[in-house]
Design a protein that fits this description.
The chain is mainly α. The protein is built from 5 helices and no strands. Na(+) binds at residues 74, 77.
Length: 123
């Protein structure tokens, strides 16, 4: 039960922070959802960092990893908003921005995880 509560609390904090970042940034560009893009890339970097530190033993116990990686990063990042925003670009027939956003989100996201793992390795 304690572990579920840790995930719940971390997820709530991550969700609120995502909202505070996405709300003002998403309207800045008509065809690019900057807030969603940034929270997903930052979340990828953080999960790589947290899981890398956990693997090294620098995050002292499994409960902390649950709070940070599963809870916080899970609540902070948003695949559902990402998918909905891609749908809206397709619905508008904007294949160029759909492709750019899709490729950059996935490509930079994976690179951010790798960077997070690399940073954790060198801390």
């Amino acid at each position: 039960m304690k572990q579920a509560l840790l995930v719940f609390l971390g997820g709530g904090l991550g969700s609120v922070l995502r909202y505070l970042i996405s709300k003002p940034l998403n309207p800045l560009f008509h065809n690019f959802f900057l807030g969603t893009f940034l929270v997903n890339i930052i979340g990828c970097l953080l999960i790589g960092l947290f899981l890398g530190l956990s693997a090294k033993g620098n995050i002292p116990n499994y409960n902390n990893t649950l709070f940070l990686a599963t809870g916080f990063c899970g609540g902070f990042t948003t695949f559902s908003a990402f998918a909905f925003e891609k749908h809206s670009l397709l619905k508008d027939g904007d294949l160029l921005n759909f492709s750019i956003y899709m490729i950059s989100s996935i490509g930079i996201g994976v690179l951010a995880v790798v960077l997070g793992l690399w940073i954790a390795k060198h801390i």
